[in-house]
Amino acid sequence: MRDLLSGPEPDPAADAGHQDAPPRVGFFTDTSVCIGCKACEVACKEWNAVPEDGTLSLTGMSYDNTGGLGASTWRHVAFIEQTTRVEPAAPPAPEGRALLPLADAGGPQAPASGSADGEGVRWLMSSDVCKHCTHAACLDVCPTGALVRTEFGTVVVQEDICNGCGYCVPACPYGVIEQRPEDGRVFKCTLCYDRLGAGQEPACAKACPTQSIQFGPLDELRERAARRVDHLHEAGVPEARLYGEDPEDGVGGAGAFFLLLDDPEVYGLPPDPQVTTKDLGRMWAHAAGAGLALLAGTAASFALSSLRTPWKAGK
User: Fold this and answer.
1) Contact yes or no for 131/255 (Cβ under 8 A)
2) Both ends of the chain: CA-CA distance in Å?
3) What is the rounded distance in angstroms from the CA atom of residue 149 to the CA atom of residue 23?
4) What is the dihedral angle through the alpha carbons of 9, 248, 213, 140, rounded to the nearest 10 degrees?
5) Ranges for the 4Fe-4S ferredoxin-type domain (predicted)?
6) Tens-digit pLDDT profile for the chain (315 aa)?
7) DSSP character for 237?
C-alpha cells in the first residue's frame, strides 16, 4: 500500500487495503441532457432516509430550492439562467406563413421567446454530488477513521464513528461535506454503498429519466464521456467540456465527473481543485525537523548553563 497523497493513482481501493477489489465505479453527469426534474434529489432522500432540511420551500431567487450540497442534501440540481444573443427572426412570407430555414442553410434562426431585442434565455442545469476524489482530503484528515475508502473506490462516512470534529469540512476542495447542526456529525453521498453491494445502481442514476446521471465502471464512463464531447463538438456545441475526469488533475481524477456547457465557475465549481492534503507529508517533516531543532537548542542551552555555573563541594 503506497498511501499516496497526490498524483495519478490507478487503483485507490487496492491501496486502501482491499484485496481483489472490483473495478472502480462512479458517476458521469451529462448536463447537456439534464431537464432539472429533481428526480435524483427525491430518489436520494427517499432511499438514504436523508431528512428534510427546508428544501420544500423555494429560495425566491431561482427554481433551485436546495441551494447547494450539504449534510442533508446529497444531490443538488443547480439552475443557472443565462442571457444569450440571438439573430432577429426572419420576416413573414408573403402568404403570411413564417419562414423557417433549414438549420444547415445558414439562414436566420428564430429568436427565443420574449427576445424581440435580440436577447434570449437559456437554462444550464446540473445535478451536483460528492466527487469521491481519488485523493480525498476529507479522508486523509479524519482522526477517527469515520471516513473510509470502499472496495468500489468510493468514499463514505461511517456515521457511528464520526465524532463531529469537523476537520473534513474545510479539507474538501469542493465544499461538499457538511455537519448537521443537531449533533455535529458529517454526512454526504455514499454512492449508495448498500445498493452497490447488492449489485444495483445508485438510486439517483436509477431515477434519472434522461440518463443525465450515468453509473458504471469509471474507465468505461470516461471513454463514453469523451465520445459524447466529440459528438457535441461536431454538432456545433464547441463549449462542451469535461470536468473532473482527468487522473492528472489536482485531486487525481474524480469518481463523479461532469460534462459542462460553460466554465466550471458558472456551475459553482472550482476551476482548478487541488487536494488540500497533498503537502501533508512535507508539512509533517518540516514540523518534525523544527521540533527536533527546538529540543536540540533547549538541550544545548542547559548544557552551556551547567558549564558556566561553578561546582561547589558539598552542594
Assistant:
1) yes
2) 58
3) 14
4) 50
5) 25-55, 121-152, 153-182
6) 455 665 667 788 988 889 889 999 999 999 999 999 999 999 999 999 999 877 667 767 777 888 889 999 999 999 988 877 655 555 555 554 444 444 443 333 333 444 555 577 888 999 999 999 999 999 999 999 999 999 999 999 999 999 999 999 999 999 999 999 988 999 999 999 999 999 999 999 999 999 999 999 999 999 999 999 999 999 999 999 999 999 999 899 999 999 999 999 999 999 999 998 866 656 556 566 777 777 877 777 777 777 766 655 554
7) -
Q: How far apart, in whole angstroms, are the C-alpha atoms of residue 132 and residue 74? A: 12
Cell 427554481 belongs to: 63
Q: How many CB atoms lie within 10 A of CB 136?
A: 29
pTM assigned to the model? 0.76
Sign of CA dihedral 169, 170, 173, 176: positive
Side chain identity at residue 220, one-letter code: E
Q: What is the pLDDT of residue 219?
A: 95
**Is the separation of the CB atoms in 250 and 136 below 8 Å?**
no
Residues counted in the chain: 315
What is the residue whose three cell numbers read 461536431? Answer: 234
> What is the DSSP secondary-structure string of 245-301?
--TTSTTS--SEEEEESS-GGGGT--SS---TTTTHHHHHHHHHHHHHHHHHHHHHH
Q: Compute how many other C-beta atoms are within 10 angstroms of the C-beta atom of residue 281.
A: 13
By CB atoms closer than 10 A (0-12, 13-18, 19+), residue 291 is: exposed
The bridge status of strand 119-128 relative to strand 256-260 is: unpaired
Q: How far apart are CA 247 and CA 26, in angstroms?
A: 14
How far does CA 7 lie from the centroid of its chain? 18
d(CA 243, CA 226): 11
Identify whether the C-beta of residue 212 lies closer than 8 Å to the C-beta of residue 127.
Answer: yes
Q: How far is CA 41 from CA 4, 22, 207, 209, in A?
A: 33, 27, 9, 13
